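Appendix B, record 7
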Amino acid sequence: MKKLIGRKEEQSILKEALHSDESEMIAITGRRRVGKTFLVRSFYKTKIDLEFTGVQNAPRREQLDSFHFVLKQIANKQQDLISPKNWLEAFHQLITVLENEKKKKEKLILFFDELPWLATKKSGFLRAFGFFWNNWASKNNIVVVICGSATSWMIEKIVKDRGSLHNRITRRINLQPFTLSETKAFFKSQKIRLNHYHIILIYMMMGGIPHYLKEIKAGKSAIQNINDICFSNEGLLTDEFVNLYPALFERSDNHIAIIKALSTKLKGLTRTAIIDIAKLPNGGGMTKVLNELIYSGFVTAYYPFGKKRKDMLYRLTDEYSLFYLKFIEKNKRNIKDTWQTLSQTATFKSWSGYAFESVCLKHISAIKKALKISGIYAEPSSFLSQGNDVVSGTQIDLLIDRNDQIINLCEIKFYNTTFIITKSYADQLRNKIAIFNDVSKTKKQIFLTMITTFGVSKNKYSQDLVDNNLTMDVLFE
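Structure tokens (predicted):
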């Protein structure tokens, strides 16, 4: 099995559960393809006594027959097991089988993967599973790992369950995509040598999803790899979007409608604007869908600087979904050098600026470390002023509002060379700072912080204005 990259905190949780003196139920959530199954298999390896994975849209009888087959393998023909009529009977059989397995010295480990596909409506799975845990597993010092890509379902039906599983989860893991540092380590383990610029280009397109990243081939540039993976009929990500949301959510049409609406406004939309663009009804159903997208990591909700709850913005932060809707969906497949051509367009320039900004927002801790303020409480936000007849409007990519009476006003620029601050851009920056001071009425010191790919060129404008000059390299720390 391939080496497990990163995941230090998650490995620590799995280790503690294995060595504790009581039964443990570990709930692992995280979006599709993020590496949940790989994490469990890689860490526990041959220690797993039972692994069973649900099948999407499979009827209960088919799931039960598959479970029966797995049970017979564990029993090793020592017990005569008839095919169970329902899940309660299946778990009765599991208890019987595990009673024999208990004779071994090590703690038993059971792994139920894609639980939402097993616990469908009227299946009776959750009631039977609750019986199994409460009446046997919780008393026999074992580890039960339950896993599911439908994060919102896992939280609602398992973590916040008010029935037989209420407060039964002992440990939780919400597995996140790789950071840039982990992505770099992953490529290194695959003998792929790419510099930080090429890694960020790839990350801006597919994020830190391990299953996507493994498609990258050594000896090819970021643009060549993206062309092969996204714009050829054989490419993994050519049609991944079509399967992504239906695999996670029931009635996924509304989820997709919201994602498509958010892709039209890169800086984010209010709830009202989403409803208007997506043509969806306002109400509890809308709230549920938005929360599911947030829990699953596709959308981020945030307040612009100084705004109230009604001004909350929702922003599409899943890199692949945005890239698909901006480029893959609209362009013909298997045309030679499709991405090489598209990457020279104005649309690419606009997308890359936003995508790099989004990457920076996901690496705030690395930016704080570079600014040497890791130990200072700080809140990241954006700033938007519409302006009026007297004062012009302005927008700020990122603000880091610190408790030490400083605000880092961050300008984020994605360029393939050193960024040069011209006289006109310097005037824009001064105007931006002046508007922010005037509108926000802040008494804090403003530090202009540039975050660029290759840094800012030294000239009289940069020396007069820039307090912090950060390059993309800090994002890998």
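Remarks on this record: The chain has four domains: 8-174, 180-238+333-357, 243-324, 368-476. The two ends are 27 Å apart (CA to CA).
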